[in-house]
Input
Amino acid sequence: MSEEAKARIAAAVKKAAAARGNTKGPHVALDPKPAKALEILSLGSMSFPDSLWENHLTQTALDFLFTPEGGIPKATNWILVGDPGVGKSTVGMDTLASLTEQGAKCLFVSAEMTRVDLAKYVQRFPRLSTLQTLFLGEFIDHNPQTILEQALDLGFDVVLIDSFVEVQECVQESLKISSVVAQKWLVDLMKSHNMGGNPQSKFTTFLCIQQVTKDGVFLGSNRLKHATTGMLEMRFDEEDKSITFLEFTKNRRGSIGKRLYFDLRNGGEIIWAEPTVEPQELPTEERVQKQILDGDSLEMRALARLYPD
Output
């Protein structure tokens, strides 16, 4: 074989390899940024407004699953994963509705469900009708990256994303970029708004629903895992699949391994309860008092302050 033929074959192989490597789009940055100058800080020199430490309250037992003092902290990112059909979207939207009722400015970013899907949700859960919603999937042909950036610049206290991977893939497909670049953009966007990177200087908190594999394994890179404050799993009970619960497997602001059981079957309201209690038989205050009695000492003190009687 001549040297010329060898060269042509080598060139063809390189071209084919390059084509295979670009099936998910070019691995380029969306907006190259200048190098950040080295900065080493004394921890005592950091200063934040006192309002940053005021948690967002849902006024449900969910508050004490997130933190021992109660509430969802500002400037944090939470990943919600779980079994198919366990109620991730419903619990996420119900939490957002509770936060809205308590005065928080909230946004629901839906990249999976359509307007018709959510209209049906509202029929079952009327309290969700107050949710401010961005149907990001409707903008897949109109630069969803810019649309989401513009929406977040309106300044929100809490944003629910359903789901993280769908938003990532929506931007990835629209801009013809790689999954790595799309994920980096979304993580960086969240971190920017965590630190008040919007005209209203809101320290935005993100609740992100994320998909799992058939084996229940989290879908996401280490970069995404490291950018999150906590990983909240929603599961069916191992012995009774009609029973569902939430449990943190990672939580920088609170405890892990503690289960909070809930019931979606009554319709119109999510009932939070301990596993040995029939939730529909107990009014709200009695349910809370039972959690005081059954909880650990830290939660007992926090709940007792909220319900002193």
Observations:
- The CA atoms of residues 69 and 302 lie 6 Å apart.
- The chain has ten helices and nine strands.
- Residues 53-235 form a domain with the Rossmann fold fold (CATH 3.40.50.300).
- Strands lie at 77-82, 106-110, 133-135, 158-162, 205-209, 230-236, 244-251, 259-263, 271-273.
